[in-house]
């Protein structure tokens, strides 16, 4: 019998266990009265103790109400000899002669509110601190609700963390010691790293015990010895970087290989440095200078374009790589020599991947993606491609287009594009997903790889060890750092651009962030300025010094978020490695990024200039799709072939060679075969419907904002 089956088998017995051994008659009546009016979930240690056989008459009994409010539920008539108080969740704490009962609304649970989660059983499981608390009991239906985290605990008796944030960290530390000492529970490596991060020598935990247990169980000296034994054994989780840092390429042969034979290792660029050079000289990268970031493009240089944004993301990503490889824990984990070897690879991979992270974005940015998606959701109702192929258009994403640019469109001698190393491609791949969208995992939240690149995608996954035991694909570890670099950059730089545009003052920024974070952290003394290490105060902010203040603020926030990203990357490296970590590094356990993003939502994105350019983008992209698709599928052959005057020969060559490779069952990287194929004179009709649509979307995605407007005006007859 499996652990899961054993738990399920005990569901009915737990109901009678509560009645017989946990609650007295009056408290039992309270619980049943609640259940007659409400959906009730039982939680806390009483379930764990029952299933482990370790119940010792514990006094605490916790339950939550799914919908209503305890204050509105008729239970008072059952309570005699009881003391009622408001508990920390805004519910009721009932002190009885032999037990303490805490009742509150599910939605008011601290971890659920902290993470802005929907109030549900799953959210409750995701918001507990310990894995042994990842189980609840549906009292109404008499059934347990749990997941593998609790099963793992029951099988191994190892304490682990579910949600690392907690409003009472000192009590968590005391409980770790208590459960280890009393029940012999083991401590996971993840929990040990959490202890190392949160325990400070000389911390007074004696008063915490007195308040919680009503007595002193462990003296501070004993506690200090215990935790330092754990901390001294903590080592950074080691992953197989050699596997992840694959320098293999889709096309391994290089016509330049012979020229490198006479160069020493010191003289020769490594493979990842070569990747950067290939990207730096690509035309797709140059086009980003005329693509808007968020603000409409101006004649000056005061606001960011996609290119300047990408340069800044590249800088932050490189800093993250250097910080990681020089981190004391990293050096200790891998050894000085190996750390130095990785230092020449990891920062450069991050630098290149960050440089091209937006290379596939269509004109008008993320709004352009939405326009293309919505267009094809309507157009492909008359299905002319397979269901799998349709995803490339109805779930169109700039990341997938970028992957195609890097692997297909930038060099036309074969179908391997810039032929970057698999490690660089994997670090770039924010969404390594060539199938349907699945919001459950961060790497599958979008359709990040097109059907046309499935061959090279599979090779990349294999080379970089990105497939889990269950067959699903996980993110490359470095993609988390590329994502962090991007988020750090736009979170702060979009705000700086808005300040430059005159949409608000620097004082407005600080005031909003202070208020938001005080509310989020429930700390009225929270100061955004103090948090990021700035020494000036709001009252000293002078509008004439706004640029200087903003510069100081930007530097400080970037430093703060870089440190946060590295800290979370180290702490969650095991989960990242096994593909279970599903958060952004700078959003895990911290509200700074959320606050910055919220400011942008309220003060930047609704601006008239931005909304107007989005309307322009909608007309332009939809108009181009209408014209080009009508041309590609027109019954008149002569009219149909007019498309060749609009679409780049590069794209047509790629499309023809893709079809040729597929038709003749030839590898797309077969340079010798494909380079000999005549692609100068062929009918558009020779392309499949998928290739026609694919080529049209390639064309539009590669356009700059201004070029797209000009092309639409020409093709629609608005200008000659």
Overview of the molecule:
The protein is mostly helical. It has 5 domains: 3-162, Beta Polymerase, domain 2; 168-234, no CATH class; 243-476, Orthogonal Bundle (Hypothetical protein af1432); 479-603, putative deoxyguanosinetriphosphate triphosphohydrolase fold (Orthogonal Bundle), CATH 1.10.3410.10; 612-715, no CATH class. It contains 35 helices and 9 strands. The strands form 2 sheets. It has a 7-stranded mixed β-sheet. The protein has a two-stranded parallel sheet with strand order 8-9. α8 (169-183) links the parallel β8 and β9. The protein is elongated. 41% of the residues are buried. The model is unreliable at 255-260 (pLDDT under 50).
Strand order of the largest sheet: 3-4-5-2-1-6-7
Shape: elongated
Detail the poorly predicted runs: 255-260
User: What count of structural domains?
Assistant: 5
Number of strands: 9
CATH architecture of the largest domain: Orthogonal Bundle
Average of the residue pLDDT scores: 86
């Amino acid at each position: 019998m499996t652990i899961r089956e054993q738990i399920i088998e005990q569901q009915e017995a737990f109901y009678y266990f509560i009645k017989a051994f946990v609650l007295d008659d009056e408290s039992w009546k309270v619980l049943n009265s609640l259940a007659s009016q409400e959906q009730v979930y039982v939680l806390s240690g009483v379930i764990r103790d029952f299933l482990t056989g370790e119940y010792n008459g514990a006094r605490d009994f916790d339950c939550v109400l799914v919908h209503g409010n305890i204050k509105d539920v008729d239970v008072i008539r059952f309570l005699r000899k009881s003391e009622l108080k408001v508990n920390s969740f805004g519910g009721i704490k009932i002190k009885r002669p032999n037990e303490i009962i805490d009742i509150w609304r599910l939605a008011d649970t601290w971890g659920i509110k902290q993470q802005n989660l929907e109030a549900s059983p799953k959210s409750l499981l995701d918001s507990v601190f310990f894995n042994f608390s990842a189980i609840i009991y549906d009292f109404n239906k008499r059934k347990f609700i749990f997941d593998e985290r609790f099963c793992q605990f029951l099988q191994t008796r190892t304490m682990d963390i579910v949600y690392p944030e907690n409003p009472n960290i000192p009590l968590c530390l005391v409980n770790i010691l208590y459960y280890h000492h009393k029940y012999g529970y083991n401590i996971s490596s993840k929990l040990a790293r959490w202890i190392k991060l949160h325990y400070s020598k000389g911390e007074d935990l004696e008063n915490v015990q007195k308040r919680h247990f009503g007595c002193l169980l462990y003296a501070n000296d004993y506690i200090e010895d215990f935790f330092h034994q754990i901390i001294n054994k903590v080592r950074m989780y080691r992953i197989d970087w050699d596997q992840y840092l694959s320098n293999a390429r889709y096309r391994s042969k290089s016509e330049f290989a012979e020229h490198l034979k006479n160069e020493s290792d010191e003289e020769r660029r490594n493979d990842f440095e070569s990747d950067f050079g290939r990207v730096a000289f690509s035309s797709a990268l140059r086009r980003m200078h005329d693509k808007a970031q968020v603000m409409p493009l101006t004649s000056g240089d005061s606001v960011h374009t996609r290119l300047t944004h990408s340069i800044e993301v590249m800088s932050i990503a490189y800093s993250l790589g250097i910080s990681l490889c020089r981190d004391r824990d990293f050096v200790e984990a891998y050894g000085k020599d190996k750390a130095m070897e990785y230092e020449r690879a990891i920062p450069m991979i991050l630098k290149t991947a960050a440089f091209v992270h937006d290379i596939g974005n269509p004109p008008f940015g993320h709004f352009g993606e939405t326009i293309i998606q919505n267009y094809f959701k309507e157009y492909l109702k008359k299905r002319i491609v397979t269901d799998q192929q349709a995803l490339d258009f109805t779930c169109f994403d700039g990341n997938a287009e970028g992957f195609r640019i890097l692997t297909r469109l930038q060099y036309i001698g074969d179908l391997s594009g810039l032929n970057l190393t698999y490690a660089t491609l994997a670090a770039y791949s924010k969404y390594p997903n060539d199938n349907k969208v699945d919001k459950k995992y961060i790497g599958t939240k979008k359709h990040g790889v097109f059907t046309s690149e499935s061959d090279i995608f599979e090779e990349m996954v294999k080379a970089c060890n990105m497939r889990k035991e269950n067959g699903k694909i996980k993110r490359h570890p470095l993609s988390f750092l590329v994502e962090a670099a991007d988020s750090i950059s736009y979170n702060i730089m979009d705000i700086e651009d808005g300040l430059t545009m005159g949409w608000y003052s620097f004082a407005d920024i600080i005031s909003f962030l202070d208020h938001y974070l005080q509310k989020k952290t429930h700390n009225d003394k929270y100061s955004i300025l103090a948090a990021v290490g700035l020494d000036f105060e709001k009252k000293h902010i002078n509008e004439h010094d706004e640029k200087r203040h903003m510069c100081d603020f930007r530097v400080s926030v970037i430093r703060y978020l870089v440190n946060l990203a590295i800290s979370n990357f180290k702490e969650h490296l095991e989960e990242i490695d096994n593909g279970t970590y599903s958060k952004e590094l700078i959003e895990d356990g911290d509200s700074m990024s959320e606050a910055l993003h919220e400011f942008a939502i309220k003060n930047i994105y609704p601006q008239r200039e931005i909304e107007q350019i989005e309307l322009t983008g909608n007309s332009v992209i939809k108009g181009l799709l209408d014209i080009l698709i009508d041309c590609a599928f027109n019954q008149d052959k002569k009219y149909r072939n007019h498309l060749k005057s609009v679409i780049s020969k590069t794209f047509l060559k790629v499309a023809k060679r893709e079809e040729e490779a597929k038709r003749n069952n030839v590898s797309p990287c077969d340079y010798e075969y494909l380079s000999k194929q005549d692609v100068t004179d062929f009918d558009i009709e020779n392309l499949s419907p998928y290739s026609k649509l694919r080529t049209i979307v390639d064309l539009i995605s590669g356009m700059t904002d201004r070029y797209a407007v000009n092309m639409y005006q020409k093709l629609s007859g608005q200008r000659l």
